[in-house]
Amino acid sequence: MKLIISPLKRVFCLIIISVGSVAYAEDSTPVHQATPIYVANQNPFVQIFGLPKSEPGTITPAGKLDAGFLYYVSNNAIKNDDESLIWDGETAQYNFRVRYGFSDKLELGVDVPFIDHSGGYMDSGIRKFHRMFGYPNDRQEQFDKNQIHYKINEAGVDFEMKERRSGLGDIRFSAAIPLFSKSLHPQRYLALRPLLKLPSGDSEYLLGSGGTDLSMSLAYSDYQTLSGINTVLSVNCGMIYMGNTKVLRDLQRHFAGYGGVSLDWLATKHLEFKLQLDMHSAFYESEFKQLGSSVQLLAGGTAHLPGNVLLDLGMSQQVVTDATPDLGLYLFVRHLF
After folding, report:
1. Rg (CA), the chain
2. For the chain, which residues make up each domain, given as ranges?
3. To the nearest 5 percent, what fractions of the chain are helix, strand and coil?
4. pLDDT tens for residues 201-230?
5. Which residues of 105-134 are buried (b: 16+ CB within 10 A; e: fewer)?
6. CATH class for domain 2-74+95-121+167-336?
7. What is the pTM of this model?
């Protein structure tokens, strides 16, 4: 394990030092910082890796601390005909997130997640929602309510979990380095965002992958193009390298691409509405589409509360395949100190 982590740490540090020394922003952070929805695909076999959540092209101002707490719960109800794949359960993430403006040229951050895989509580609500709007409940009704059963059997690779498991997930360390200067792009911001994920979670219970991952993202925030309708456009894209996992190891890929597009409409001084589309390529070599590429739709809003507290609420929904959960709900509270 030490042989894997040490080279990645060196690469991570060299990227920060070399890029930070030649590319930085002279522009001040906008008064209204628009942020994409801070949620990523919570497929139980994808969330173990270091897939980054979308972040803005702006960085935390120098000397400021941006602290937040994310609660994200997602529901799965999938079974194929021969029962070689069964996903029934809920995954909840309790994530403590910190970003610190080390200088005008560098932001440093850490995410400490607690993961809970259980039978959950959303099954009844989802079935009532489907009936209300005329959607079928065929998949949900294949299972008893509020139970957990995750199983994959493919090409001699077996995994099964039928009991609730929870604990510390894989801790992530991140950085952000601004790339645009004020003289070139006064209302457009681009940041390089490297991320290092360490194997602190127990891979046997889908709390982590058992490997070390490194990703590199470009985050772009555009306050100018749609300023006439008080909307900020954000784009994220990048690549992730995934170290050897202990979960479905023989099916794992080591590289994947990801990206997302977000619109943030400032409806009033105290209320924003957001719409976001996230996607990534397959993390596994598998015939199961549930382990393939993903497209996920997210919708929500941000309320500006007294004391400079921001409250984000919203939902996620699968779009194309079953590679994302049926439904997810998130709550994110943060404050800039």
Report:
1. 20
2. 2-74+95-121+167-336
3. 15, 45, 40
4. 999 999 999 999 999 999 999 999 999 999
5. bbbbbebebebbbbbbebbeebbeebeeee
6. mainly beta
7. 0.85
